[in-house]
Specification:
Blueprint: E1 2-3, H1 5-17, E2 38-40, H2 43-50, E3 55-64, H3 67-74, E4 85-93, H4 98-103, E5 107-108, E6 112-114
Antiparallel strand pairs: 1-5, 2-6, 3-4
Length: about 120
């Protein structure tokens, strides 16, 4: 599922301030002491990015859910996501691809995360 560049940048900034610096991710009230084990994406998710004209690969970005972004995408379950390590991906376009200029920055998220959903 596509997410906005603004949501990506917000999540990336939180990751850069906390987890990237070796600190614990933080939810509203405390440190996350049981961080993300894995994140999975379906073939459909990956192919949505890879199947576009001019795409030559995928770049994965480490992020951390902010309260605002978690509420936007997970509603009443948002507290289970705030402060968790995330993985957002974006397509890589060949340097001479006209589509790279037309599409700009595209970001995809909403993989299944464990925890909270370890199925």
């Amino acid at each position: 599922m596509k997410i906005s560049k603004e949501d990506f940048e917000q999540m990336k900034a939180k990751y850069d301030q906390e987890i990237k610096k070796g600190k614990a991710g933080k939810d509203k009230n405390k440190d996350i002491d049981d961080q993300t084990n894995w994140i999975s994406y379906s073939k459909k998710d990956i192919m949505e990015a890879l199947g576009q004209e001019g795409v030559t690969g995928i770049k994965f970005h480490f992020t951390e859910y902010t309260e605002e972004v978690a509420k936007k995408y997970y509603g009443s379950d948002s507290d289970k996501y705030v402060g968790r390590l995330g993985l957002v991906f974006s397509p890589i376009y060949s340097g001479d691809s006209r589509m790279a200029t037309l599409n700009g920055d595209e970001y995809f998220d909403r993989g299944q995360m464990c925890p909270p959903k370890c199925e």
